[in-house]
């Protein structure tokens, strides 16, 4: 935010905060942004922020709570009102869906800042978006467009038919009636959490895992139970189901280019995992949204491909391979389960976008999706090579990693013990956004998830160089 030149900076900050409070955007009881966030927003040093906050405290509008932050204590009309305003903070805290971790919230907010080098972002670069092809597909869809309303509960039938054909190419036999179209894989997890699991159920998963950065299962009253992994992924023998957990547990796994570690589970391990699930009567969610981002060789068949008894719910999506903006994903499973989930989806949003579903169907039916994937793999392979070479040059003596065979991420371990919180803050102040391992439930606080998929190659090199300088400064203390 750019401040006016004539008015003192601290006064402009005071006026801004007063306006937020007086118009109800920051109601009584709400926590205001930290001094660091405000200083960055107004492009001033912290002493200016402190001066402004002290004046607001003297006016009785805000108050500091030791160890918790600064909160709105009053507003200009409260003393004149007969009845106090509603305690929105209490409602916010009591909502069913739990808030994200504070670090995750900060990362999500910072990802909209185009000035940052986004080594955090798990999506394709804008340079890889097939703009001209997408325009062509949209024209084709619009030329064929007729009046349309809500789709049938499971989704646009031609898209489900196209997906049925696509799934056969990776070994999964699924009729259109066994496929549910969802608004991305995250919605799939939300539907499963509220539609299939008892409150108090256990969700078994790799540790670390993407799910630890979400609150979707915890919000539905589930407990996350981390399982150990090795270089081949989740260790099947670590799965143990008690009688109390039976029928109250589900396994979640990302076998293809796991988020955040990038591990690819080999075929033998996949078979062992399915065998354990059958033995323990343990249902499984196979999250396969990174599958088509292989760089060296085609991955093993999905676990779902060998599932003959309906143990596995299979998740796929176009968000990582084509465009997150389409909001198109799918769940494959036994028909009774798909019927149940489609009913809940109708109660939630009455179906995913009709336009997006038609566009997705055209990408599959025309063969354009497969062509696009070939180009994406070529570009990702170049970016992976650049990141690995840059890491080797700047960080080989103070960090370790292994080469992922696909996906977006490199799981970096810093060999010296440093404050990862301080590393995150210093990097952000220096214009680099990182994902610390702690948001993925990583016990050892020495990991970073680095993405090579989003930033330009020039920024990738610059970001790694600057990151190495910050890490060395912290190590040398």
TrEMBL record:
What keywords are assigned to this protein?
Answer: Aminotransferase, DNA-binding, Pyridoxal phosphate, Transcription, Transcription regulation, Transferase
Residue spans crossing the bilayer: none
Gene3D superfamilies given in the database record? Aspartate Aminotransferase, domain 1, Type I PLP-dependent aspartate aminotransferase-like (Major domain), Winged helix-like DNA-binding domain superfamily/Winged helix DNA-binding domain
Q: Boundaries of each HTH gntR-type domain copy?
A: 7-75
SMART domains, per the entry: HTH_GNTR (SM00345)
Which InterPro entries would you find in this protein's record? Aminotransferase_I/II_large, HTH_trans_reg/aminotransferase, PyrdxlP-dep_Trfase, PyrdxlP-dep_Trfase_major, PyrdxlP-dep_Trfase_small, Tscrpt_reg_HTH_GntR, WH-like_DNA-bd_sf, WH_DNA-bd_sf
> Where on the tree of life does the source sit, at the highest rank?
Bacteria
Q: Which cofactor does it need?
A: pyridoxal 5'-phosphate
The answer to whether the entry has keyword Transcription is yes
Q: Which GO terms describe its molecular function?
A: DNA binding; DNA-binding transcription factor activity; pyridoxal phosphate binding; transaminase activity
Give the family per the record.
In the C-terminal section; belongs to the class-I pyridoxal-phosphate-dependent aminotransferase family.
Q: Which PANTHER family match?
A: HTH-TYPE TRANSCRIPTIONAL REGULATORY PROTEIN GABR, TRANSCRIPTIONAL REGULATORY PROTEIN
Q: What is this protein called?
A: GntR family transcriptional regulator
Which species is the source of this protein?
Niallia circulans (Bacillus circulans)
